[in-house]
């Protein structure tokens, strides 16, 4: 009687729990892998990423999936939806201690004439982890609903997302940027416009709300970058305007009518400017420090009074910075993009100082609105520049950042449908300068990216979670 009871419990467990290791004998095979969305095929996953939930985009009545890591079967499931949902606990247990291993999905689909087996889907588990948290702004992709936005924090080893700051707590002003010093939330800043606007700076466990007033009228500080020592904050002061096209794929254009570079001393409140950089005939924007803090990179275009928008193009410059005397050298053009009919934005140096990653578009400064925007990689030792074709698509690739060890890149791309910007992650080999195939940030719901109606903007990797959020709200009061 006891044996029969155990058999019944075992059979019920098979019916109720999809993780059972059922075997499958196909009636025929297909000489290609099954199509998945997101496209989790041939990618390298960090060892600490959440399970890659996805959907099988093949016609069928039933679906059977078996997950193997190296030669060990760790999960199998059968359903009629085509969803691949690997339980978080099983995934973490499976990848623990298997860094460098091969993750294989065996996929079977039952059609009218029986079960079809597809070629195995193979991915790799990297020997390197990624920074554990990703911070991004969520915003509608149009221009009329910008007043509903927030900055959110995602734990990458799970599906947990936490709102850090939402603009409903700040008078519904525009939260237009956030940045961290050395990938640490202990030193960070958020810039907010509107009634409770200002630059919110967190250092030493405190948040101060300051109003930074550049010398030029009608300009406000934005696009900030921390000096690696954590005292100075470089930023551009921009007078931006929106323009609208009546036809064509670019409905909205955002452009500067004036911009300059300044450095804010968070200890003294002093604003450091350099006349040699901010000459009247130029517009300067998107500052970024080298990892050693000795060089400031920025984008420069000729100032325009009546220049047509498609003729405004930015080159990449760099200038030496003397930390002792708090003075600048002579600006030097590193990438004369305008000569090639390109415009450069968002310079980002790898943590080892070897590579420079930029966005290149046809013109202008706001690359998120440009479908032709692509990522380019520069070897700073040789000066060689190439399009990072491993990451680019036929749609917009825009804002990008490095992990703290330089082995991962996260960027925004509109490749799913040309409208929504979603976060993609790719491995990067500092020895060869080659990036791996990018993959969409995994979500708990396989249909998430088919239904979510906000864009992920300014994705930044950090080494620990942001805490003490009440400090920002108190500063706003």
Word description of this protein:
By secondary structure, the chain is mainly beta. The protein is 7% helix and 46% strand. It contains four helices and 36 strands. The strands form eight sheets. Strands 1, 3, 5, 6, 8, 9 and 10 form a seven-stranded mixed β-sheet that branches. The longest helix has 15 residues. The protein is elongated and about 75 Å long. It starts with a helix and ends with a helix. The N terminus is likely disordered.
Mean pLDDT: 86
Rg: 25 Å
Structural class: mainly beta
Calculate the terminal CA-CA distance, rounded to whole Å. 71 Å
Keywords:
477 residues; 7-stranded mixed β-sheet; 5-stranded antiparallel β-sheet; 36 strands; disordered N terminus; 4 helices; mainly beta; 7% helix; elongated
What's a quick, concise take on this entry?
The protein is mainly beta and 477 residues long. Helix content is 7%, strand content 46%.
Topology, element by element:
Layout: H1 2-16, E1 28-33, E2 36-37, E3 44-45, E4 54-56, E5 62-69, E6 72-79, E7 83-84, H2 88-95, E8 102-111, E9 114-119, E10 121-125, E11 133-139, E12 150-155, E13 161-166, E14 175-181, E15 184-192, E16 198-203, E17 206-210, E18 220-226, E19 232-244, E20 252-265, E21 271-273, E22 282-289, E23 295-302, E24 315-322, E25 327-328, E26 332-335, E27 343-349, E28 355-361, E29 374-379, E30 385-387, E31 397-402, E32 408-413, E33 422-429, E34 434-435, E35 439-440, H3 448-451, E36 455-462, H4 470-476
């Amino acid at each position: 009687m006891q044996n029969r009871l155990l058999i019944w419990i075992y059979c019920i467990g098979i019916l109720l729990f999809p993780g059972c290791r059922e075997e499958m004998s196909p009636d025929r095979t297909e000489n290609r892998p099954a199509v998945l969305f997101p496209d989790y095929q041939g990618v390298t996953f960090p060892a600490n990423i959440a399970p890659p939930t996805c959907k099988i985009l093949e016609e069928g009545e039933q679906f059977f999936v078996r997950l193997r890591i190296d030669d060990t079967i760790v999960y199998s499931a059968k359903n009629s939806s085509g969803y691949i949902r690997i339980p978080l606990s099983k995934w973490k247990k499976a990848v623990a201690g298997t860094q460098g291993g091969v993750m294989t999905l065996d996929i079977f689909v039952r059609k009218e004439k029986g079960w079809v087996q597809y070629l195995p889907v193979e991915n790799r588990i990297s020997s390197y982890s990624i920074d554990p948290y990703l911070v991004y702004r969520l915003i509608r992709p149009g221009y009329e609903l910008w007043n509903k936005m927030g900055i959110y924090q995602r734990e990458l080893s799970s599906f947990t997302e936490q709102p850090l700051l939402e603009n409903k707590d700040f008078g519904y002003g525009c939260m237009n940027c956030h940045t961290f010093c050395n990938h640490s939330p202990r030193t960070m800043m958020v810039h907010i416009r509107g009634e409770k606007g200002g630059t919110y700076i967190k250092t030493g466990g405190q948040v101060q709300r300051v109003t930074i007033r550049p010398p030029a009228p009608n300009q406000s500080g934005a696009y900030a970058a921390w000096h690696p020592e954590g005292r100075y904050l470089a930023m551009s002061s921009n007078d931006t305007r929106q323009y609208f096209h009546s036809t064509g794929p670019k409905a909205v254009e955002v452009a500067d009518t004036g911009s300059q570079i300044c450095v804010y001393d968070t200890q003294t409140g002093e604003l450091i400017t350099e006349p040699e950089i901010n000459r009247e005939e130029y517009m300067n924007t998107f500052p970024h420090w080298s990892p050693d803090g000795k060089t400031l990179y920025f984008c420069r275009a000729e100032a325009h009074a009546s220049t047509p928008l498609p003729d405004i193009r930015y080159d990449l410059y760099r200038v030496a910075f003397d930390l002792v005397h708090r003075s600048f050298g002579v600006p030097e053009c590193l990438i004369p993009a305008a000569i090639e009919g390109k415009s450069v934005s968002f310079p980002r140096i790898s943590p080892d100082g070897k590579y420079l990653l930029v966005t290149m578009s046809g013109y202008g400064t706001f690359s998120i609105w440009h479908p032709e925007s692509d990522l380019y990689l520069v070897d700073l030792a040789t000066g060689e520049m190439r399009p990072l074709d491993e990451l680019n698509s036929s749609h917009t690739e825009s804002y990008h950042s490095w992990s703290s060890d330089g082995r991962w890149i996260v960027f925004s791309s509109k490749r799913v449908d040309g409208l929504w910007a979603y976060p993609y992650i790719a491995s990067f080999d500092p020895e060869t300068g080659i990036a791996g195939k990018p993959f969409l940030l995994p979500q708990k719901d396989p249909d998430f990216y088919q239904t979510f109606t906000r864009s992920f903007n300014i994705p930044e990797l950090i080494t620990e979670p942001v805490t003490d959020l009440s400090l920002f709200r108190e500063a706003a009061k």
